[in-house]
Amino acid sequence: MNPTVGIAVILTVLQAAHCQMIKDLSACLLGQNLRVDCRYENKTNNPLTYEFSMTKDNRKHVIHSTISVSENIYRSRANVTMYKNLVCLHLQGFTTSDEGIYMCELRATNDYTGNQIRNITVIKDKLEKCAGFSLLIQNTSWLLLLLLSLPLLQAVDFVSL
C-alpha cells in the first residue's frame, strides 16, 4: 500500500470516529421557564441522541432523553427542540426546587469515542434572562432579519461628519 494512501485512510477513520463535540452549555430564564442550550459541532450526518439530566443531592434525575427514560415529574414540564448544531431543553415552571447541576449528554450513531458530556450549575437567582434578540437569531434566517431591520435603518437619519 502506498504510504500516502495509508495516512489518508488513517486520518479519515480518526475524523469519522469523533463525530460530535459539545462546544458550549448555557442556561437562562425565559419568563418562569428554564432554557438550557447545548451547542455542538457535528462532523457527520449520523442521527444524534441526547439526554438532559439534573443532579441534586447526589442523585441524577433524567429530565428529557432519547437515550434513557425521563422521570415522571418532568415529562409534562420538559420538551426539547433541535436546531442546526443546537439542542435546547425547555423546562416549564422552573423553581428553586429545580436547581442543581444540569448535564447535556450527546451521542452520534457510530461514534466510537463515547458520549460527549457537559455540566452547568443552575441557580435561579443567578440566572440571566434569555435575550430576545438571540432567540430571534437562532430561529430566523439572516435574510429575514435583514428585511425586518430595513424600516429601522430608514428611520435612522445618518449624519456625515
Automatic annotation (TrEMBL):
Domain Immunoglobulin V-set residue range list: 33-106
Segment forming the signal sequence: 1-19
Matching SUPFAM superfamilies: Immunoglobulin
Function: May play a role in cell-cell or cell-ligand interactions during synaptogenesis and other events in the brain.
A UniProt-annotated Pfam family: V-set
Gene Ontology CC terms: dendrite; external side of plasma membrane; focal adhesion; membrane raft; myelin sheath
Main location: membrane
Coiled-coil region list: none
Source species, domain of life: Eukaryota
Residues passing through the membrane, by range: none
An example Gene Ontology molecular-function term: integrin binding
Name of this protein: Thy-1 membrane glycoprotein
Membrane topology: Lipid-anchor; GPI-anchor
SMART domains registered for this protein in UniProt: IGv
The keyword DNA repair is annotated on this UniProt entry: no
UniProt source species: Ptilonorhynchus violaceus (Satin bowerbird)
Gene behind this protein: Thy1
GO BP annotations listed: cell adhesion; integrin-mediated signaling pathway; positive regulation of focal adhesion assembly; regulation of cell migration
Location in or out of the cell: Cell membrane
Annotated keywords: Cell membrane, Disulfide bond, Glycoprotein, GPI-anchor, Immunoglobulin domain, Lipoprotein, Membrane, Pyrrolidone carboxylic acid, Signal
